[in-house]
Design goal:
With 358 residues, the protein is an alpha/beta fold. It has 13 helices and 13 strands. The structure holds uridine-5'-diphosphate.
Length: 358
């Protein structure tokens, strides 16, 4: 197949602004290339694909970012800036897709989904978030009525946010395992990884660290400075150790030294890439029992699921984390979330979408 992928309209690939979509896109490209498909990626100026994806054709587009949906009101109208990056990526993508088999949209936004009803080319959508906008959810509902196969989700629990989706297509996610080294560091520090923004609930992880009289190592883009300093100031100085945003290779080296990852989302996390990345390094995860992480983590086997927003419950599980065998964490990723498994699921799905357009 020749597959054209539309990237996120937030930041460039490598900036971290696009969150998990950046890694997901690279994993998917790698998996598709390994299966012998040809891939074109349309992304923002300055984007870089991983070295292992050199065989993909990268097309760069200039333009203004969209506003992230999780930071707008649920009922906000659609905003498209002048010189829109999203519109530019679509224009280029649609043009290239004339010579390709299918266009795959990875941006969570209105315009590409609306296009599905208005062009003859097959457009398949990887929905990367729970329901964060009424306008987008209503549009998905409308398009789904005509093209029920054209949407795929990362987890069942994410798809539940769209109650009109009767039989969701679940593709999970994939991780290039040789990018992550297993480490048996049972006595290491506490880790937290993610965009530093309110929906990620950093304060609950800092609470746990503070109760234990330990530091919390925090990796990721500080997306919301005001929120970050508010969390920092609510606890004794230096409880948080800011580690910055690292490349996958640097991140996994450091993360693998930790004894547990705390994962504290306050929203219906679609999947939770950082959870699987920790597991791939052998790091067990304690997360709230909500969203994608609650589908990924096997309670008592690869980590623990605490009652949502119950920090004390989370603390109690962190205190017994050494009961988890780190090898089992890595094994789960090998068996369930490799790039091969992911790409095969996506290809099966895309074949079904293409079949609808014959
Ligand atoms: N990440 C990274 N370097 C860092 C911290 C995070 O590359 O220092 C990446 C991480 O690999 C993951 C993404 O940021 O792919 C966060 O994705 P996740 O699915 O956990 O959450 P999202 O940001 O999409 O809500």
């Amino acid at each position: 197949m020749r597959i054209v992928l539309i990237s996120t309209p937030l930041g460039y690939l490598g900036s971290g602004k696009g969150g998990g979509v950046e890694l997901t896109l690279n994993s998917l490209v790698y998996g598709l290339l390994s299966l012998g498909h040809s891939v074109d990626v349309i992304a923002s100026r300055n984007s870089k694909l991983y070295k292992s994806n050199e065989k993909a054709k990268l097309h760069l587009v200039e333009g203004e970012d969209q506003i992230s949906w999780q930071h707008q009101n649920y009922n906000s109208p659609i905003t498209i800036p002048d010189n829109s990056l999203l519109a530019g990526m679509l224009e280029k993508g649609l043009n290239i897709a004339k010579q390709a088999d299918i266009l795959v949209n990875m941006s969570y936004d209105w315009l590409p989904i609306w296009m599905t009803l208005n062009v003859d080319l097959p457009i398949a959508h990887i929905i990367s978030m729970g329901s964060e906008s009424s306008v987008i959810s209503n549009l998905i509902s409308k398009v789904y009525a005509k093209h029920p196969i054209n949407f795929a989700f990362h987890s069942k629990i994410q798809a539940n946010d769209y109650p009109f989706i009767k039989k969701p297509i679940i593709i999970g996610n994939g991780f290039k395992l040789d990018n992550y080294t297993f480490q048996d560091s049972v006595k290491g520090p506490l880790a937290w990884v993610g965009r530093v923004a309110p929906e990620k609930g950093l304060e609950d992880a800092v609470y746990v660290a503070n109760e234990l009289g330990e530091k919390l190592k925090v990796w990721g883009v500080i997306e919301d400075e005001t929120y970050a300093s508010k969390v920092e100031q609510s606890f004794p100085q230096e409880t948080i150790e800011w580690m910055g945003f690292l490349s996958t290779n640097e991140l996994q080296k450091e993360l693998g030294k930790c004894r547990v990852l705390l994962n504290t989302p306050k929203w219906n996390e679609a999947y939770g890439n950082v959870v699987v990345e920790a597991l791939a390094c052998g790091v067990p995860v304690v997360a709230y029992k909500r969203g994608g992480p609650s589908e990924i983590i096997k309670h008592g086997h690869t980590g623990y699921l605490a009652d949502p927003d119950d920090k004390k419950n989370m603390l109690a599980y962190v205190e017994i984390i050494e009961k988890i065998e780190r090898k089992k964490c890595r094994e789960w990723v090998e068996k369930n979330a490799s790039t091969d498994i992911f790409a095969n699921k996506v290809v099966n799905w895309l074949n079904k979408v293409m079949h609808e357009y014959l």
